[in-house]
Amino acid sequence: MDNSKVHFNLNLSEHGYIPSEEINTVIQLALYLEKPLLIEGPPGTGKTSLALSVAKSLNLDLIRIQCYEGIDSIQVIGEFNYKKQLLQLQKNHLDKSESEDIFSKEFFIPRPLYKSFTSPDRVVLLIDELDAADEEFTAFLLEALGEGQITIPEFGTIKSKKIPHVFLTSNKRQELPEALLRRCLYIYIDYPNKTREEEIVRYHCPVNDNLLNNLVRIVQEIRKLDLRKKPSISESIDWMKSLMMLKVDNITREVIDRTINVVIKHQEDINLVKENLSEIIQ
What we know:
- The chain is α/β, with parallel strands linked by helices.
- Helix content is 46%, strand content 13%.
- The strands form 3 sheets. It has a 5-stranded parallel β-sheet with strand order 2-5-8-1-9, with helices on both faces. A two-stranded antiparallel ribbon has the order 3-4. It has a two-stranded antiparallel sheet with strand order 6-7.
- It starts with 20 loop residues before the first helix and ends with a helix.
């Protein structure tokens, strides 16, 4: 393989995402191989942001499917406009003319998956939180992900005009089937280590090193607690922005009491953090 070809001009940092070398490499490979990329990891680690940044970096439109329990193929491929079909049937009856096919594309309401596969231009397709969907929906996606096509009984099989760059995210609430994993490249994104989180926060909030060091250290200590929801990277950034607005130079117990709601979003978690402040602040 000519390694010189395995390169896409990705400037993710210019679009708000600071990638590790591992992340940058797997993105390059997924784009080059035209394979879907499954991104797993805890909530708030930047999985969705990565796909958004790739779309911006490549200057491509992003089409998003937000998964949830009960989502089905109709909601991502499309459906026929029943009211429009009914009106056409009435018109055909009144005109006594040649009946118009009410199962043509004129009567079809396209949804994200259909749009991404019929777009004349390549797009980025984000299938977000796939682990929230039912097994039936995941199985339905196999044709699209593995063969680059979708099937609609009234239209037949529709091959993708330009295979979209597909990103799937999962919070690992349930295991995804092996058949889907075989069709994807894979990366697990965990909460960043202290050095990398400092780099990310610094990118968004240019601050003095002492305050940055303290904030990231405290956030990392908070994440060690048995919380209902651990602070995300974006919440670390929001907390830093809040401290900057309040002109805080040092993170004290009082400062945490006043601003903890920016980074912790459940009262039981707030109580747990306050109970452990001595160990957290050190």
